[in-house]
Design goal:
single chain; eight-stranded mixed beta sheet; globular
Amino acid sequence: LFGLIPEPQMTHPSRRGVIASGLAATALPTLATPTLAKTAPSGAPKPWGATPSPRQLAWHKRQQYAFVHFSINTFTDKEWGYGDEDPALFNPTDFSADQIVGAAKAAGMTGIILTAKHHDGFCLWPTLLTERCIRNTPYKNGKGDIVGEMAAATRRAGLAFGLYLSPWDRHHPDYGRPAYVDYFRKQIVELCTRYGELFEFWFDGANGGDGYYGGARETRKIDAPAYYDWPTTIALVHKYQPMACTFDPLGAEIRWVGNEDGVAGDPCWPTMPNHPYVQSEGNSGVRGAALWWPAETDVSIRPGWFYHADEDAKVKTPERLLKLFDESVGRGTNLNLNLPPDRRGRLADTDVAVLRSFGAAQAATYARDLAKGAVTYASAERSAAFSAARVLDGRPDTYWSTPDADHTPTLTLDLPPARSFDLIRIREYLPLGVRVTRFAVDAEVDGVWKTFAEHECIGAQRIIRLPAAITARRLRLRILEAPACPAISEIALFRQVQPVAVAPARSSDPTILSTKDWHIVAATAPGAEALLDDDAATRWTTPAPTPGTPVSVTIDMGQVVALAGVSISPSRTIAKDVSPPRDYRCETSVDGTQWEAAGSGELANIAYALATQRLAFAHPRQARFLRLSFDAPALPTASIALAGIGAFTVKR
């Protein structure tokens, strides 16, 4: 998805690289907007540290929403278009905004963010600023407007709408010059004034590199902060969309979580220093830093951001989505789950089934707060207006607090009998800042107190999943460390309903070759069989190549085939000092003795987007054996890792 190219003067690579009917709409774990009263309750604590703006408070409420990547790349089988693709390629045969939005709503998503323009510069709305847009496509004979159709469907479903607009444009001849910034800002104005209220406006961090650029076919580098003048550009969004949060340069309301795997740091503080984004800080935030700059956790339901038929069998399961929820929403961030439509303009059946299963399970899980009816008492209370009972009243604008000097109190729930639960949700009252540094949760089971969790950071919410359900007589929250008295707005308990299993799908693309009968002939490190098991969770790890000593693997496909290209999938497993290869060389052979060069080049953006690279040969060839060599890691790491190698044949 998001292109990840390191930005000049910024230390992060860019990226950008998520309610089932009525029940889900009311039952899902939605964080109601914590609003500041015109006058704070008498005796209220003073805010501590950075605090969120009204638009950020509204954004925290969203909790989880969908990304929709749909463009020229859908039809070219790429993740990044070069900028020279013919707009006529964009021709969905059965586009249905309602089908896409309906599946997202069934999953419990509260909004949709659509990629209005990706890096190749193709616009999904009928702009008059460029000919590279939907006006010049076969879709509805040039009369279509995907942005408009998606906006209308999203609002019919009662969801919020947002837009992604890539600052980079690999097509525009003036990219890198002042004229392009003027063009880019005119695009912002069009999108902010034509499609109603927006809850988020997404600026990808991938900016500058090689591209078509009106036929120049060259590499252009920019100083992104200076070139886009982000304060002015963000102010332009807010001029027309005052409640839209922007993503993600310094000065925006939302930051990148630092990976595209859907995993927030633990803890994940919503505060950051007032300097350009640093990836090592972005995943966990910085406790007590000057800016309220919370993280958005982005991930795709498939390995790639755009639809690829060879990923039909690699859709995340409902169980994996539950884990993603825990690792994002459960750590106080918002989940932005990508749902890529196929070339029809619809979500594939398996994707829809997974979303419905996940959404139904979550709706049932959060339909009943098992803490309701409990009796609360605390070691201290600030006053009756801030009593312990406030954590159970269901109101986001009330909270339990203590006298200013009491930073480490305890709060106990005396639970109704026979309440079995495995999820504990705790929330702070955000308008007063993130006050709790470290806390513990204990439960009394069979007359014995036991500590079940100890964490840093509560923030917007902290969801604790127990390894097994317990039936407790009492539950206790202990504040272990805090720079100010706490302000806890909620403690809630739930029992997870397991999602209905979804049958795994198979690839719908007949050109994709099965690796079932392939085997490894030779490899520079053991374990290369993991490249052929069609399991993204396994990987081949080998010491990084050195100059003149490449890493290589040779594969016997079992028979001679008409080979049109290969695919290389990096590992998405988070590991230290490991990266994918930077580039590749491919050779083919009919007999394993005589070899011919088939292709070579850079693996674009592989280090951060971690997307499958589909590498077509200049001409199809007969081959039984494949040899892939890698000369350098994409990052300066001690090892390289790959999850899979595949191949495709010619179309019949």
